[in-house]
Write a structure and sequence with these properties.
Number of strands: 0
Number of helices: 20
Largest sheet: none
Strand content: under 5%
Shape: globular
Distance between the termini: 58 Å
Length: about 400
């Protein structure tokens, strides 16, 4: 039976295991979609815009489900929920792969996005905080460092597989990955966390130590609103660009170099997280949030003014990757720092709902903008939204006086 000390000593193995399952999860459920979407559209008799519309609708429904899933993660523990999510993810991929008609395909995509809420970052962050709240922020940084290889690995992997397999066969292969890689680890994690709680005489997923938030109770609504707005705007930009990364780079004139340039994105994510791990220990998470949004804006602006110059596109992929890498850290660490560890899973669920509901339309709208208004207009809209995200995060730090002080004045 695992003891509190033993599971804490297993923190490194847990981080590496979660890193692997995040690579598989993001690679199969998210990054592969833009590579496979053109054949999906031809096979189902849709335009690509409609296929991306289905993806957006599924993201939207996943966003609505996120708060409820977050509460279940708090109540039952992240491990069991992630194990369940691995089964649902595999099932949803099989449903899509075997779908005889459009309606079944849509149902499979919806199940896939609901599964994402069980197995991707929100659940993994909650698992790390539930295991060791005191080191939760550090563990989140380490996890995102490993998981940053998802796009670098799965864009070329999906492209190579798709040269020899249909999109349906690729999805079946991805379903097997969830069953043989993700499910065993998540099941082990669930058992380890359950044994840890039993050894401490606990009936819930709550941990012994609680991290207090830095935001005063009376200012929480304002801070949460601004934080949610910042994550929603960033989520829109990231959702639009990550789904369309390779098609966008192809459309601006890079041709066959688009995939190669796109692979710079993943290492840049990892590099920004590595630098933050080494040198960002004393950096405020609010400052880090502003920097992450600013890097996204810098990358998009570089692409806007330099395309189709390949070195400009490479600079875009690097800057955008740096910003995305920091965003993944901030999405887990900023809520923990501002609001504390109590009810952390439910809090992440609420934030995820806001972000996903707003960004769910991003792939579809960005596709429509590129097709009917132009690539440069689509990029300009994304730049404005990125600037708005940076402003929202910065505004959290502009503290107003407490009601008691205002009354005394």
């Amino acid at each position: 039976m695992a003891s509190p000390v033993s599971i804490e000593h297993r923190r490194g193995a847990i981080i590496w295991g979660l890193g692997l399952t995040q690579i598989v999860g993001y690679g199969t459920l998210y990054y592969s979609f833009s590579i496979l979407a053109p054949e999906m559209a031809r096979d189902l008799g849709w335009t690509q815009e409609w296929v991306f519309g289905v993806f957006s609708a599924a993201l939207l429904i996943g966003g609505f489900a996120a708060p409820s899933i977050g509460r279940r993660i708090d109540r039952h523990g992240a491990g069991p929920m992630m194990a369940l999510g691995s089964l649902v993810a595999a099932f949803s991929l099989v449903v899509c792969a075997l779908a005889p008609d459009r309606l079944t395909f849509v149902a499979g995509m919806i199940a896939m996005e609901i599964a994402s809420a069980f197995v991707l970052y929100n659940a993994a962050f909650a698992a790390l905080v539930q295991i060791t709240p005191q080191t939760g922020q550090k563990s989140i940084t380490h996890l995102t460092l490993i998981a940053g290889f998802a796009s670098t690995l799965f864009w070329p992997i999906t492209t190579q597989l798709h040269e020899h397999l249909t999109w349906r066969e690729v999805y079946l292969a991805f379903a097997v990955l969830h069953l043989v890689v993700c499910l065993p680890f998540h099941f082990w994690l669930a058992r380890a966390m359950h044994a840890d709680r039993r050894s401490n005489g606990k009936d819930t997923a709550k941990t012994a130590a609680v991290i207090e938030g830095s935001i005063a109770d009376w200012d929480r609504r304002r801070a949460f609103t601004l934080m949610g707005l910042g994550f929603a705007l960033e989520g829109f930009v990231l959702s639009a660009l990550l789904v369309h990364m390779v098609p966008l780079l192809t459309a601006v004139g890079l041709g066959a170099s688009a995939v190669l340039v796109g692979t710079l994105f993943g290492p840049s994510q990892v590099f920004s997280r590595f630098i933050n791990m080494l040198a960002g220990r004393g950096l405020s998470q609010l400052v880090l949030a502003v920097i992450s949004a600013a890097l996204l804006v810098a990358g998009l602006s570089t692409l806007l003014v330099s395309a189709p110059w390949i070195y400009g596109a490479a600079a875009f992929a690097i800057l955008f990757g740096l910003g995305s890498g920091l965003t993944s850290i901030v999405q887990g660490s900023l809520p923990l720092v501002l609001f504390g560890s109590e009810g952390y899973g439910a809090l992440l669920g609420r934030i995820s709902a806001i972000r996903l509901i707003v960004s769910a339309l991003a792939p579809f709208l960005f596709s429509v903008l590129m097709a009917h208004v132009g690539i440069w207009s689509a990029l300009s809209v994304s730049i404005v939204l990125g600037i708005g995200a940076a402003a929202a995060f910065a505004s959290i730090g502009w503290k107003r006086p407490s009601p008691e002080l205002a009354t005394e004045a």
